[in-house]
Amino acid sequence: xxxxxxxxxxxxxxxxxxxxxxxxxxxxxxxxxxxxxxxxxxxxxxxxxxxxxxxxxxxxxxxxxxxxxxxxxxxxxxxxxxxxxxxxxxxxxxxxxxxxxxxxxxxxxxxxxxxxxxxxxxxxxxxxxxxxxxxxxxxxxxxxxxxxxxxxxxxxxxxxxxxxxxxxxxxxxxxxxxxxxxxxxxxxxxxxxxxxxxxxxxxxxxxxxxxxxxxxxxxxxxxxxxxxxxxxxxxxxxxxxxxxxxxxxxxxxxxxxxxxxxxxxxxxxxxxxxxxxxxxxxxxxxxxxxxx
Length: 292
Ligand code: NAD
Prior knowledge:
Strand content: 5-15%
Oligomer: single chain
Number of helices: 9
Distance between the termini: 63 Å
Radius of gyration: 21 Å
Bound molecules: nicotinamide-adenine-dinucleotide
Structural class: alpha/beta
């Protein structure tokens, strides 16, 4: 090596080292995210991931007490200007429109929607009342429709594209005995996302779905009747449920809210700029065989 070449290499290595030490820009800096069911287990984990990556976040939920608690917690951790809470029932058309308008007017736009507000319910098919059927269809299928339609209108008008993430379920593809209304509603969410991906593509609006398998920790769904029903139908105790789902999975791993949040981060960020109309199964490998 000539003296000049050695100098050039050393100079280049020093510049590289400086670059490595520079703080990296956060992946969601300047982005505005709206998360329904944001006071729940999966919604809160997604909010945490987005706030950590520099986004500002609106949490929409029907449960005022949980919403207040979540907003106060996030405000303390990430700064109160970076998080807002808005009380809204996703089945109420007027309330959904108002929730978007009120919360986003202040932030000035919308880049990311996470449609996540939901419930679980089980009943043998012949005992499924119209009320149970309607509740599932209205909160899950209709709720996801109303929320994504409003987000779509805003994103299209902004002309800046956007990313929508639907939290559906493994049960939207796999049949589950005794939960036909829930499964049918989750299937509707998945197909709605794919249709919306088609219509949104010319405007840079991407729409993808995450299908979680059972996420017990942190989820309010798993604290009540659902937990008891699942334990009974699998002939195990409620305490053994987590182990049951872990053992049932291909990878023998439990799925946590943070695992869903990681996929939701990928789908919201430019990392997934070339993905739309897709489904990510976060299920420790369960979807590979629906007979398991
Ligand atoms: P969670 O109960 O902890 O959170 C759901 C949140 O949605 C709650 O805060 C609840 O108040 C809110 N919500 C319910 N109905 C609403 C309505 N009409 N309007 C506005 N908000 C409403 O449950 P989670 O486990 O975090 O579930 C989030 C999503 O993930 C749901 O769509 C659920 O179906 C789906 N999912 C969950 C699991 C799981 O095992 N936990 C598995 C697959 C799919």
